[in-house]
Structures are given as C-alpha cells and as structure tokens.
Design goal:
mainly alpha, 4 helices, 0% strand
Length: 138
C-alpha cells in the first residue's frame, strides 16, 4: 500500500458523499454567526440612536463608543461571514445574516460618530450645528 493511496482515500470518500440539503429552519454555524453579528449590530444601532438623542446626558459619550464597537463588530464579522460563504441566500451559510450585519453595522458606526461629535461639542460648550455663527453673517 502506497502513501499516495492512503492520503487519497479520505479525499475520495469525502468527494463521493452527496451534500446534505439544509432546511429553511435548520440552524447552521454560518447562520448562527450571521445572526449573532446582525444582533450585535442592531444593538449598536439602538445604542447609537439613544446616544444621539441624549448626547449631552449620561448615554452620550459612552453610548457612542459602545455603538462604534458594536457596529465595527457587525461589519467585520458580517464581512468575514460573507467572505467564507460558499453559496447564496438559502444555502445555510449565513449570507442573509452577514448582509444584514454589514448594513446595520455601518448605520451604527455613522450614528455613533454623530453622537460622539455632538457630545464632544456639548462638553466644550459650543453647539454642534454651528448655530453660534448665524448672527455674525447678517
């Protein structure tokens, strides 16, 4: 028995097994990763929106940072999930969850950036929208 035969046998056995069909409600690793990334990104959107709404209060600075981290996590993990997926939507690879995670992650990053800029300008004592310069141009 040659080494080539011993190494080729598991590969041939793996190639001869037909792929198992994945049902619509089956939870696969890809779907789980995509869903977790999408949920973390959704949490980032919620925290980012709250931080933007209450930028001068308790949530402002810290909430913006939390939303930024959650959004970046969603973008990175969702992007990796999309990069390693073998098929399209419905194949059990988490493609839909990955796309949702990337989109929600980007929204969370934008909201967190707006909240952080607004909370820093409130701490410095100047408005974030440039309202202090309106009277100077008249």
């Amino acid at each position: 028995m040659s080494v080539r035969y011993v190494l080729a046998a598991p590969v041939a056995a793996y190639a001869s097994v037909p792929p198992v069909a994945v049902g619509a409600s089956d939870l696969t690793v890809g779907r789980l990763v995509g869903a977790v990334a999408a949920l973390v990104a959704l949490a980032g959107v919620v925290v980012g929106a709250l931080a933007l709404a209450r930028s001068s209060g308790r949530i402002g600075g810290r909430g913006g940072g939390v939303a930024l981290v959650a959004g970046l996590f969603g973008v990175v993990v969702g992007g990796v999930d999309l990069a390693v997926a073998d098929g399209g939507p419905g194949t059990g690879n988490g493609v839909v969850g990955g796309v949702v995670a990337v989109v929600l992650g980007l929204v969370a990053v934008v909201l967190s950036r707006l909240a952080l800029v607004r909370s820093r300008s409130h701490r410095a004592g100047r408005p974030a929208d440039g309202a202090e310069h309106e009277g100077a141009h008249q």
